[in-house]
Amino acid sequence: MTLDRPGKGATMLWKFTLLLFCIRLSLGMTSVAIQSQPELWIETNYPQAPWENITLWCKSPSRISSKFLLLKDKTQMTWIRPSYKTFQVSFPIGALTESNTGLYRCCYWKETGWSEPSKVLELKAPGQLPKPIFWIQAETSPLPGCNVNILCHGWLQDLVFMLFKEGYAEPVDYQVPTGTVAIFSIANMTPESEGVYICRTHIQMLPTLWSEPSNPLKLIVAGLYPKPTLTAYPGPIMAPGESLNLRCQGPIYGMTFALIRLEDLEKSFYRKRPIKNEAHFFFRALKIHDAGHYLCFYYDGSNRGSLLSDVLKIWVTDTFPKTWLLAQPSPVVQMGQNVSLWCRGPVDGVGLALYKKGEDKPLQLLDTTSIDDNESFFLNNVTYSDAGIYSCHYLLSWKTSIRVTSHNTVELVVVDKPSKPSLSAWPSTMCKPGKAITLQCRVPYPVLEFSLEWEERATFQKFSVDGDFTISNVEGKGTGTYSCSYRREAHANIWSHRSEPLKLMGPAGFLIWNYVLNEAIRLSLIIQLVALLLVVLWIRWKCRRLRIREAWLLGTAQGVTMLFIVTALLCCGLCNGVLTEETEIIMPTPKPELWAETNFPLAPWKNLTLWCRSPSSSTKEFVLLKDGTGWIATRPASEQVRAAFPLGALTQSHIGSYHCHSWEEMAVSEPSEALELVGTDILPKPVISASPPIRGQELQIWCKGWLAGMGFALYKDGVQEPVQQLGAVGREAFFTIQRMEDKDEGNYSCRTHTEKHPFKWSEPSEPLELVIKEMYPKPFFKTWASPVVTPGARVTFNCSTPHQRVSFILYKDGSEIASSDKSWANPGASAAHFLIISVGIGDGGNYSCRYYDFAFWSEPSDPVELVVTEFYPKPTLLAQPGPVVLPGKNVTLRCQGAFQGMRFALLQEGTLVPLQFQSTPGNSAEFLLHTVGAEDSGNYSCVYYETTMSNRGSHLSKSIMIWVTGLLPKPSLLAQPGPMVAPGENMTLQCQGELPDSTFVLLKEGTQEPLEQQRPSGYRADFRMPAVRGEDSGIYSCIYYLDSAPFAASNHSDSLKIWVTDKPPKPSLSAWPSTMFKLGKDITLQCRGPLPGVEFVLEHDGEEAPQQFSEDGDFVINNVEGKGIGNYSCSYRLQAYPDIWSEPSDLLELVGAAGPAAQECTVGNIVRSSLIVVVVVALGVVLAIEWKKWPRLRTRDSETDGRDQTIALEECNQEGEPGTSTNSPSSISQGTSVELPVPI
């Protein structure tokens, strides 16, 4: 079955173009192809009679063409080849005659051949204006409707354009544009805007001379029916040559369905008659160009259409591209930590599966919904068994012949914490005034870095390479408990166990007496200065009055007085100590960025545009200079603080070195990096730079190109082939040397090239010499306050080192901005303070510092990211699974921003440095708080900022409070007057805790943020809920916590369910042991409700009055005379509201002998009775048969009995005669026979 393209399809497509453009704008999609159709129009020098002399003009949209062609009636009329490339030419026609009338179009020559022809211009007989053409165009507009622009092309300039609507005699709109096209806008399309429109033109000087009406344009507002659903079978990702079925299903029968591909609206409109309420669109053999975004709709016979379905993306590919897998926070993790394996691929709409080498089945699966929510594979509490090589595969639920390429893998290494070091103090643990103590952290093997922590100050942290830390005891502030840890080079992100704590103590009372002594000395010095000045004045007055003229007396007195003054000033300086001087940072106007853009990736020099962008939002204007002298052009700054300088096709006159400046109200910026254009067929020369190399550490070499979408290659002198190559990664690339050694020293350069063959290479950059030099350890660098600041704040950077007599330099984004040599004058450890008095938006960035002496430089310090907020909208911060969590559990804080590609930072109230940083390609970041404890309780907020333009950040998010519960006894929660109230009444929830002066929090199930917080003076908080509504129903709980350290919180109270209703919910009714009465047995009906303190009532169908009342809900039912059989229901009322009854429960039926169970019992009895009758009848038959046999048995028995008796008598007589042998048989025959009477 093939796809139908009927003639009416084009009409329907035209009618639904409006809605398609609105959907295209809402999806953020743009047209795939650049408009290549030329423009054709008429010019004349006879405005009142244009047919007297006509000239046709043809204009190319690409502005570069060498040939133009004019067609008449689909045949070639003439063509022009101008002497130079231009974008428009003229075709003189002269006076319009019958031979000149016809249909005209024009084309222009492109690199691949002739372009599409222009719109058709129809010239008719003299005295008639050309017929205008009419079409629609969508524009970006606010909700709720879609704005439509109707364009009318009249072919001549200075015409009057009239817009007519069917059914209206007068025009609905008119315009007099300066060009040949009028734009009529219909704002917020509604059903009232539907109709048939036409356009007509006339000459301004001749209002009676009208053109013919344009072709009619019918506008129909779609969306009168619900949208259908569009699904793909067997799946949305298929290989070329496979078959695909797209099923469009709607809720209405008998409609006509249509399928559209957004990438090609005019050529991909398919119409299909339905099968019931759905239609199937078959692709017998898919091709690569069938891939794209599809949607469908349906319409009735009056062309009234539905909403468009959701967009379905179809992929047609031979091979799946690679997936990439990233382990966060690192592939080397400590045992017991959590690891997120972040897997993504360029193909969306497909699930992902995580595999481990050596196992056949996937460990975890992610469906498309989870991928859209930026979820990742999560390994919790990793052990040694979790170590291994992991890979990520696409997960398809249908069969396809698409080949799957190899996958990127991540090797997960699980290590345990290194053993704890030892910490000692030299010369002792007793702090003496003016003396320093060296804390020595030691382990028996080499390490990368040591860290020192001070338990009394959570934000205190020092780093050292050799393990020695100098602690000064200025004003007694060095005392406290210290511990240290370290990390090894093999696993730089894993710190060891902390050492045993070491306590430094000071002399008793030292702090108090030192303070009192200082204050006393200062006060006495002030008094001495005032007294000495009074003595000088008195000596002068006394000398005049006594007329003492000896000069030596006055000189001696004044000299002694001045000696006392100088001595007092020196003492004042000694008592106050050495003042730390601050170096103010004079920020230069931020340097702008210069780059080039082109729409010809393979030949960029054919059309170049230079862009200049400034990180300062106060920039007013940009200036582009060539070779440092000639002023090229100026451009006002746009809202994005950037300006474009179009150069067009690159010629010999354009060759040179370019840079740009940004102008503010009172200053001009430093020049940008120089962009050098060296030829018409050569890419601009890139710029290469790197930080000073350090032996054994990673080094990144930065290569900056000038065009996007270029490839990069790094070269080393003496090596013919590139050392490293990178694909299209933007306008800049970073080449990484994993471990800098002596073999890596040398001169390096980089080049850029076009991404596709044949490669076009740039000139090599200037050489960069990498030489490993011996360096001092990096200094300790920090800000005195939080590095996340608002505009106008004061920021002080502190750079310090144990080395003496060194100079410091401050860097911003790798450029030197300030220096300080004032530490040369002070003995001991060196430090410098750099001050920004008022931070501006352009002052954000990555700051670092270094120090140096006559011989060596130090390594750069760790960078400090200064973020200036309040430039972008604030993000939202949510806690998952919620802000109330038990100790030892994990909490994920999700920060959602407004822009993609930003860097996110998580902040906690009371902590100067942000807790975590995260850079994501999307617009959100997830921060994991692992195994939270009491110290994790507090207020959290987040901020996002861009890393390319001075770290301009957003407003701080609304803070969210995290409570770690389970550390205090749980409270109790009660409702007054009760858990059920009618709408509009007042309710109070009372939370009773165990500790006074705590903060109580009211929570509701299903709501993440707390409803209310209170800090009463006692043990109980009353949360008042005035005029409750239906949405106030739900399950409530409460907690309480301490406002100060350790911020412990209680467990949740028992849940309390609240009903806001006029009638309580209905109860449940059940029977025990069953719903069937048995002989002599009763049934207990159990009525149960959701509220305590209620009274239950049982009702029986057929009885007006309630049958029984009960407080526990149990009712005993007997079946005397069958009165217990029937349907029962129960209800209840609150004791506090005796007039309000709940809804009755569902009916429950009790059955007796007449019921189904009784019938079953009767059948059993009948069967048993029948068996008894059969047994009795069988027994009777047997007795009858035996009775008939009785007479014969009786006769035979009597004869036998007589004979037996005679024999017995004879034997008895023989025994009575002596000497007679009883054994002789003859004796029997010979004896005398005696007859005796025998009884019968």
Automatic annotation (TrEMBL):
Q: Where is the signal peptide?
A: 1-28
- One Pfam family name is Ig_3
Give residue spans, biased composition: Polar residues: 1219-1233
Keyword Oxidoreductase present in the record's keywords: the answer is no
Residue ranges spanning the membrane: these are 520-539, 551-570
PROSITE patterns recorded: IG_LIKE
InterPro entries assigned: Ig-like_dom (IPR007110), Ig-like_dom_sf (IPR036179), Ig-like_fold (IPR013783), Ig-like_Receptors_ImmuneReg (IPR050412), Ig_sub (IPR003599), Ig_sub2 (IPR003598)
- Specify where the region named Disordered lies, as residue ranges: 1195-1240
Under SUPFAM superfamilies, the record lists: Immunoglobulin
Q: Which domain of life is it from?
A: Eukaryota
Chain segments annotated as coiled-coil in the UniProt record: none
Residue spans of biased composition, Basic and acidic residues class: 1195-1204
Where do the Ig-like domain residues begin and end? 38-106, 321-392, 421-484, 777-869, 873-961, 969-1038
Q: List UniProt keywords, sorted A-Z.
A: Disulfide bond, Glycoprotein, Immunoglobulin domain, Membrane, Repeat, Signal, Transmembrane, Transmembrane helix
**One Gene Ontology biological process:** immune response-regulating signaling pathway
- Would you tell me the protein name for this molecule? Immunoglobulin superfamily member 1
Which organism does this record belong to? Equus asinus (Donkey)
Originating gene: IGSF1
